[in-house]
Amino acid sequence: MVSPDQTVRDAAQQMSAEDIGALPVGENDRLVGMVTDRDIAVRCVAQGKGPDTKLRAIMTEEIKYCLADDDAEDVARNMAELQVRRLPVLDKDRRLVGIVSLADFARKSQARKHVIQAMSGIAQPTAH
User: Which residues lie closer than 8 Å to 114 by C-beta, 6 or more apart?
Assistant: First the structure.
């Protein structure tokens, strides 16, 4: 987890070191946003902002999430409807306990149908 007051450079370095494309953004023990490699490209670099830009300026604040005890099929369906590749996982107290991704579903042979389901929804064009 990164802080909204950390810089884009900090997030990019962490993403590179951990070979990941998204980081949860937390403040006061709560999830307040997500920042992705795409956010860095589109909301920072493409807008002429520099590496010292605070994450607060480019993060996605409206966070979609699932709960730790949600059914995998429901989560995959939700990912398809939301057209996202990953979702933060919160516990009953609404604290971040992980992030579930399509790759997580793909690693489990019995869950591959969920990947297909989610990908079919993600691949649909969005209305603008």
Answer: 72, 73, 75, 76, 105
Residue 29 has pLDDT above 90, yes or no: no
More confident: 76 or 121: 76
Neighbours of 3 (CB within 10 A): 15
Q: What is the Cα gyration radius of the chain? A: 15
Backbone φ and ψ of 23, nearest 5°: -135, 135
Residue in 69, 38, 44 with CA at minimum distance from that of residue 56: 44
CA–CA separation, 96 and 73 (whole Å): 20
Residue 124: band (very low, low, confident or very high) from pLDDT cuts 50, 70, 90: low
In 3D space, the residue among 78, 76, 96 whose CA is nearest the CA of residue 88 turns out to be: 96
